[in-house]
Design brief:
4 helices, 25% helix, globular, Leucine-rich repeat, LRR (right-handed beta-alpha superhelix), 102 residues
Length: 102
């Protein structure tokens, strides 16, 4: 779903995809509201959010995903290292990529 017209409304309507493990939302038009609606997908292990409009609040909402092991937040200027640390505190196994040098 990279660089498509995916919106928050769309993300709220994929709750039936309970077996979904990976989702690529790079460069799409989602906000914290849409990202937080993904928490219902309890089997998600990887989320690719590069170049999106998410903020610290959106990243922190992902703590509700117990199987999450990887988040790509590259080129997300509104995500701070503080939010990454908070997510890692709640999900110690998660790896978060903020910049290509991380």
């Amino acid at each position: 779903m990279n660089e498509t017209k995916i919106t928050d409304k769309f993300l709220k309507n994929i709750e039936h995809l309970q077996s979904l493990q990976d989702i690529w939302l790079e460069g799409v038009r989602t906000t914290d509201e849409g990202i937080s609606s993904l928490v219902i997908l309890q089997n998600l292990s990887s989320i690719y959010l590069a170049s999106s409009a998410i903020t610290d609040a959106g990243l922190e909402s992902l703590a509700g995903l117990p199987k999450l092991t990887y988040v790509s937040a590259q080129y997300c200027p509104n995500v701070s290292r503080r939010a990454i640390a908070a997510l890692r505190k709640k999900l110690p196994a998660v790896s978060v990529k903020l910049n290509y040098s991380d």
